[in-house]
Amino acid sequence: MKTRRRPYSEQRPTDLGGGVWSVPVPIPGNPLGYTLVYAIESPGGPVLVDAGWNHPDAWLALRDGLDSAGIGVREVRGVVVTHFHPDHAGLAGQVREESGAWIAMHEADAALVRLMNELQDREHRSFQADMLRRAGADASEVEEVTAQRPRPPAPPDRELHDGDLVDLPGRELRVVWTPGHTPGHVCLHLRDADRLFTGDHVLPGITPHVGVYPYDRDDVDPLGDFMASLEKVAELGELETLPAHEWTFPGSADRAMEIHAHHEEKLLALASLLAREHEPLTIWEVAGRMTWNRPWAELSPTMRGMAAGEAAAHLRALEVRGVVRRTAGPDRVRFALRP
Question: Where is this region: Disordered (predicted)?
Answer without folding.
Answer: 138-163
